[in-house]
């Protein structure tokens, strides 16, 4: 890789494809976007632009092979795309990984990958004015394993867990064990430990959590805690309404 130049809000570098070292691309980061241009002699559609407002996170890491001196940074985007055979737009996950091999020293390469990852993370946070929760967002996630067809936990580990890791969201998972478990927990919890409470269930568990918050002595302050709902029930009417009105 050639050494990147940087000045206010701008970073430029040349990296290789992690799967094929001979495929190289130039990457430039501005305050609002990440542009990837494939370096090749054949003209064509080789330029891709990602908005940083669609980026949920970026991490730097070493390769899986010990002998690999290169380091990597991977950015996770969720741009709106048209799903095949579907009329509406939906957010689809796109992962972009780059190999940094400036020098033969793995640590220097890792430091450079970290620098890029941090710049992309900071840029994406600045581009998301609607995100009101602070970062890192310490989250308590309550899952009712019996919600819907009993698949809420499976949905969590299949879809949500990886997104939280990619977005560097530290979380504590609580699997409810009985009716009113969430209500009692929230009523007594030290809410200063959490920046957000997220419920993965149908409507019933959110109802419990709101009741638990309202039953506290400090309910006025407690009700300011950001709440999130991930559809895990059968109907998910509340979750669909919240999503609809938040657009
Ligand atoms: N481990 C548990 N065992 C039994 N009941 C539970 C448990 N955890 C939560 N509950 C209770 O189950 C009720 C129903 O949960 P929830 O609304 O999440 O699922 P659902 O009824 O399947 O979803 P939907 O409302 O979409 O049909 C809640 O009111 C909650 O009190």
Structure in words:
This protein has 247 residues and is of the alpha+beta class. The protein folds into 2 domains: 5-126, PH-domain like; 139-245, Probable inorganic polyphosphate/atp-NAD kinase, domain 1 (Rossmann fold, 3-Layer(aba) Sandwich), CATH 3.40.50.10330. It is built from 6 helices and 14 strands. Strand 3 and strand 4 form a beta hairpin. The longest helix has 21 residues, at 106-126. The chain binds adenosine-5'-triphosphate. Adenosine-5'-triphosphate binds next to helix 4. GO terms for molecular function: ATP binding; sphingosine kinase activity. One of its GO terms (cellular component) is cytoplasm. It comes from Gouania willdenowi (Blunt-snouted clingfish). Its EC number is 2.7.1.91.
Fold blueprint:
Layout (H helix, E strand, L loop, with lengths): L4 E3 L2 E8 L2 E10 L3 E7 L7 E5 L3 E8 L8 E7 L2 E3 L6 E3 L2 E7 L5 H21 L12 E5 L8 H15 L4 E5 L5 H8 L7 E6 L1 H12 L4 H4 L4 E5 L5 H9 L2
Parallel strand pairs: 11-12, 11-13, 13-14
Antiparallel strand pairs: 1-2, 2-3, 3-4, 4-5, 6-7, 7-10, 8-9
The chain binds adenosine-5'-triphosphate.
């Amino acid at each position: 890789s050639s050494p990147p130049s940087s000045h206010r809000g701008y970073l430029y570098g040349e990296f290789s494809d992690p799967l094929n070292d001979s495929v190289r691309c130039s990457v430039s980061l501005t305050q609002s976007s990440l542009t990837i241009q494939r370096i090749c002699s054949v003209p064509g559609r080789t330029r891709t632009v990602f908005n940083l407002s669609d980026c949920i996170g970026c991490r730097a890491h070493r390769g899986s092979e010990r002998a690999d001196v290169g380091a990597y940074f991977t950015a996770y985007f969720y741009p709106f795309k048209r799903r095949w055979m579907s009329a509406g737009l939906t957010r689809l996950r796109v992962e972009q990984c780059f190999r940094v091999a400036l020098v033969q020293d793995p640590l220097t390469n890792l430091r450079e990958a970290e620098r890029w990852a941090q710049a992309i993370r900071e840029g994406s946070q600045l581009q998301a004015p609607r995100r009101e929760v602070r970062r890192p967002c310490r989250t308590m996630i309550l899952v009712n394993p019996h919600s819907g067809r009993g698949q809420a936990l499976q949905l969590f580990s299949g879809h949500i867990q990886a997104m939280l890791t990619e977005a560097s969201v530290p979380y504590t998972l609580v699997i409810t064990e009985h009716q009113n478990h969430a209500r009692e927990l929230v009523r007594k919890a030290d809410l200063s430990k959490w920046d957000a409470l997220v419920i993965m269930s149908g409507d019933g568990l959110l109802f419990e959590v709101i009741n638990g918050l309202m039953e506290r002595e400090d309910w006025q302050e407690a009700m300011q805690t950001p709440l999130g709902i991930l559809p895990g029930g059968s109907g998910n009417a509340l979750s669909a309404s919240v999503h609809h009105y938040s657009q």
